[in-house]
Amino acid sequence: MPSTCRLSPKKILQPLHVTFIDKDGAEHTFEVSAGDNLMDIAQAEDLEIEGACGGSCACSTCHVIVEDPDKFDAMPEPSDDENDMLDLAFGLTETSRLGCQVKMSKDIDGVKVRLPSMTRNLQAADFKGSKKE
After folding, report:
1. Interior angle at CA 112, CA 13 and CA 118, nearest 5
2. Do 43 and 51 touch, CB atoms closer than 8 A?
3. Phi then psi dihedrals of residue 103, to 5 deg
């Protein structure tokens, strides 16, 4: 039975479900609210997802892999900024997304995502040239 996510402690009127597969292959299923993003859910449940930029789409440390291609297709298209950050992600796949950019909705209720075995902490700031005087 899924547990209610600590991110949404009050009773959820229309619960949605998300399952995370951790690095050891264990599955963790939670009841969540529409609008909760995958990174915040995982962090609230103490799963290993970094989110070094705090969810501002400026790194790739909240990279997740969507297990079901149909659920992946039901998600809104990633922005150009998200695609740029995904290019830096370790273990990039055809169904990779940044957890901070995926908000739960009825369309993806029951989504199952895998946390990659490791992350690469490169941020957009790492690629800005330093000003020479």
Report:
1. 125
2. yes
3. -100, 135
